[in-house]
Design a protein that fits this description.
alpha+beta; 93 residues; single chain; Alpha-Beta Plaits; five-stranded mixed β-sheet; 5 strands
Amino acid sequence: MAENKRVHVIIGGRVQGVFFRMETQRAAESYQINGWVKNRPDGRVEAVFEGDSDQVGRMIQWCWKGSPMSRVDGVDITEEAYTGDFSDFKITY
């Protein structure tokens, strides 16, 4: 059985106003990742990803690429204890 994983990420660069959250949701759903994504007041994007460890890894790789119009300068990743709190992936505010 695959191991589940949870990560908290903060993505910096040109990541607001470029459909980053919508594309993050689309990617998360394609990787069967649960959690959320939101814009931060400081111009960065914050997200929590939960799911299969390999799929979470793919989602982190996706964050380095981002949406077609974005420019990602950095991805800060913090591993957290898996909770299983989420049943889907949402854009939050």
